[in-house]
Amino acid sequence: MEPRAGVSKQDIREQIWDYMEARNLADFPRPVHHRIPNFKGASRAAEHFPRLQAFKMARTIKVNPDAPQKNARFLVLNSKKTLLVPTPRLRTGLFNKITPPPGATKDVLRKCATSQGVKNYSTPVGLDSRVLVDLVVVGSVAVSEKGWRIGKGEGYADLEYAMMVSMGAVSQGTPVVTIVHDCQVVDIPETLLEDHDLTVDYILTPTRVITTGCERPKPTGIVWSKISCEMMGKMPVLRSLHCREEQAGKDVTLRDKRQSPPGARAALSTVRSPRELPLLESGSLQGDDVPSSTVYVGNLPRDARVSELKRALSARGAAPSRLTWQGPQRGAFLHYRDPAEAWQAISRLQGFCLGANTARVALARHQGASGLAGGRAGEPHPDP
To answer: Does residue 288 have a pLDDT over 80?
Structure first.
């Protein structure tokens, strides 16, 4: 199957999905549209995996959590290698290490390789774990024999790889494998590729093993100009990497970050006293609107002073344009100029301590009428 001339990535995705559904090549879950397709023969395609020299030499292998790679995950565990699986949508971290119970039989290993098994037998792998990934397996919607790859359009595989580069887990020499149906191997115009797109070195299908010989460079790290504030809000691990790279002096300007006028500086304005503000429950602030550019800092020491907090925030490079002090509630609201600046502050305040207390740092959210018990309609609260 060849794509039509003048196509986009989405055109190719739709063509593959339609073809697989029309010819009943797809397996559960269906329909395959907007998914990494699970296909009939996926287990057979994965049987080529242990025969690759790259597999034999690898000790730690990252395999995506999609259904067509279930047998690949089993084969990694059955070979007594370390299996890493990305967390779904990167919401709670980057990797989970799958640890089967002692003496696990093949049947138990097969359960460990399922989506439920990944949940039951996994432990998070932190950014400081210094993990080295020897081999990467990604899902694809379409792939070319040259190694060009198209995913389902959400960019998670590309971002996962870029994050692995940023944490030093992979290098340009780390092989990348994809497992697909034969019909998913198509010509892809190179003009569709962007610098952040991940390429593959091996393609496994039910009938073939394709060595692509791809020489196009893989992503060299996270392209922050393509990352939105919304993505930062959903992925704590991304915020941590953003903070690290900013501290290393890299350009980490986000896609929707509004540039400040030349010479503009964030300065703390006059702090409102408790008398000017009704005493509400901890972590809430009265008002008609709280923008997403407001950050709540809680669990401060009982004897904390405003001046002490201001100095600590400035030292972290997280000085807000305005601060609302809630001393009796042991907290404060930090008001920034825009959501991107707020998320940047949250990233910089990871692990923030004042005195002996580790502060709670969260984006403030609006509390509606049906919200927390005891709260007033329209009051903002720290995000849970």
So the answer is: no
